[in-house]
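Quick question: what would this complex look like in 3D?
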Amino acid sequence: MPKAGAEALLDAGDPFARDLLDVLQLICPAPSLVNGELPPGDRAILRPDDGSTAEPGIMRTTTSGIDLRFFFKYDVDPEGGYLRIQTSTIGLSLTPSGRCLLRVEYDREKGPDQPDAHVHVDADGALWGKALTLSGQPLRPLHTLHIPAGGRRFRPTMEDFVEFLLRGRFVTPTSDGWRDVLRAKRREWEERQARAAARRHEFAVADTLRGLGWTIHPPPEGGPVDPDGR
Amino acid sequence: MTRGHGRVQRRVITPGELRADVERVLAEEGMPFDRFVELGQADELHNPRLRDLWLLAGASLIGA
């Protein structure tokens, strides 16, 4: 069991875990997650409860032979106490080979040469090979390409992935109400991201609200200065 | 929508446990640990399984 000091960290992850289960139950018959503290104790991970620790977990879907592979590694923002995803991957793989078809990968601390959030397509790509050749590049596997996917704030979510699987009929929904669930969850996500974006871009947000007729007062003297002079 | 489907279990993943699982995967993929760390830090891991392994465990392994 986690020590007392880890409880606050894992407490921060529990609401997100429940949100994940709400979405996963649409395509997985028995979703079960682990909320686990990782060494050195300042971060934790949400993953399928499949007995592994270092690899993304496997979660069976309603369609035999198609699995979800994913994990979310998180910590708590030291400034505001908010849950913050450090790295994550969501992927679709085939059993029994375990070959991954498609992955959405996110790394908050990605270096400047690669996008924070990106898609890897691990499948045959004869046309991609032609594109590489035409652009003078040596041939390389399709899965080595990093396709940008929305950056830190607007990256693809579990809802997007599940919707892709359902609309594409790769898996069978567990209930008829999946569209409403995804719509509601996506709205919650967008609101959380809007709040986070507002914290980062307060002047742009204030400017936008004024344009909509709101009366906005700046913080007391000594607050932040608008770099654009608004 | 009905909540309550599925469960969340809490646990602590120890450094030894994490390292053992990493080494198991590296052995299966035929990659030495030091090479894995070197390529992971340089963002030059292309094997999807090893990329995921680095994303999940890399920072914990090197104490970052």
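Answer marked as accepted. The mean pLDDT of chain A is 84.
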